[in-house]
Amino acid sequence: MSRGPLRIVVVGGGPVAARLVQELRPALEAGAAHVTILGEEPVPAYQRIRLGDVASGRVDGAALSLLDAQDEELAGVVVRCGVRVVALDRDRKTVILDGTGGPSVPYDRLVLATGAQAVIPDFPVSGTVGRGISVPAAAGLRPVGVMALRDLAEARRLHQAVRDAEPVVVLGGGVLGVEAALALAEVGAAVTLLHRGHVPLGGQLDPDSGRLLLRQLLAAGIQVRPDCGVQELVVAARAQDRATAHDGVPHLTAIRTTQGRRIPATLLVACTGVRPRDELATAAGLDTLPRGGIVVDRNGRCPDDPSVFAVGDCAAVLGSQPSGLIGPGWDQARAAAGALRDEAGVPEAVERDAAGRPVPTPTPTPTPAGRLDPIVVKSHTLSVACAGDLTADPWDPQGPSVSTWADPEAGQYLRIVTQGARLLGFVAIGLPRSAAELSRHALTGTLPVADRSALLAMEHAAADRELGPEDVLCRCSGATAGQVHEAALECATVDEVGGRCGAGTGCGTCRGRIEALLAGPPVRQPAGSLA
């Protein structure tokens, strides 16, 4: 008697879960696997990395969707939204939902894709709410208006604030804070950026590039307050909100900073860090790291329970701290899906040549020891990318080699740190082509060109034509230049291209290249070239 399809339950409905489903497609189409996705949000997976575009009003949240619940159900996937998992029963292999989610869900294989949650400090609060109700009466309740911009609901609330010209404060000078502040300023919102360092992205940039970034943010209309934090939140009840006045719920009206300033604000976007959501795994007795992260092997499998996998921001591959980047999350989804397809009896299809002979599968290249994970600021008006260590002294004859080029008036800066042919670190501001090229080569830890000044020449050259059809254009999805070009022939937007081959739906580094292809003439290229 043959068994039924392998029951795979995925806890978490984010982009990495969507990627996992795509990679499982052969097993789903063969009827060898069935997937149930349990997501807390009321909507299926979407491009979370583009929430800033929703907040600024550039795109509607519906345009970011990565899964169509009805279409997926036809393909052997059940997408359940708005359900909360409260526990895992590993002995019975069931996922236990809260009281409103219905009965427990059985599984043969469980994939935890719970992501990360924002860490928002418990700020002191002052003021009165309701009909003379003091703030302590609402103890433990975070004031309305404090958010982290981690989901669509918060992005839409922020967009409403932009439309109503409400003052917004962004707390945190890391990449998420800089992105949020830029997205709001680009559409004319009144935004103040508070951060504890001397310059934004101070932990990733060298002093000169940090000063240039600060200058560019000020030029964008952002009120930047360095060396500054939140002393307390000032709250009150909104007179127009009767329910608020009756319930005594505090609404944010202003922020008092550690510098003694009082800044009006109806929204505080706290970009103050995230922590892997591993509480379900910890409670179930699975191995987790002290700072967060579910320990898994290279295929995403938990060593102490082979029926449980973890991928994305919650996964600590080989005990390494989760990176928080979308590219590694997609790599993990691909590896876990491969292991699950094998268990379902549907290994990866064998490619054959014209004579019907199997084409040897390339041996997977191990992760290079010198690999760097680039940080890219996603903005429509400012290009910033960096990776690795930039602290080397350029005048130390025994130290690494450092090359620096700056044009502050033009808002451009480039710094490259190398040891021989190995790339140790880089930062590129206002130089999008150099940023893209260095970001791509950072994954192998190598220099893109021997003559570093050639990178500057690329800014005005047709660098896209140097990519062959087999060259990877989108490092997050793995889509090649040839695949992207073929998709662009039949698409009108970057999102449509992403729907066909995945390119442009990750970190956003390649969106400029895709836009250039869409803007060019729709000419099909011969094999071996990409014009």
UniProtKB/TrEMBL annotation:
Pathway: Nitrogen metabolism; nitrate reduction (assimilation). Pfam families: Fer2_BFD (PF04324), Pyr_redox_2 (PF07992). Keywords: Heme, Iron, Iron-sulfur, Metal-binding, Oxidoreductase. Residues 7-333 form the FAD/NAD(P)-binding domain. Residues 349-373 are annotated as: Disordered. Gene3D superfamilies: BFD-like [2Fe-2S]-binding domain, FAD/NAD(P)-binding domain. SUPFAM superfamilies: FAD/NAD(P)-binding domain. Transmembrane segments: none annotated. Residues 473-519 form the BFD-like [2Fe-2S]-binding domain. Its cofactor is siroheme; [4Fe-4S] cluster. Belongs to the nitrite and sulfite reductase 4Fe-4S domain family. PANTHER family: NITRITE REDUCTASE (NADH) LARGE SUBUNIT (PTHR43809:SF1). This is FAD-dependent oxidoreductase. It comes from Citricoccus parietis.
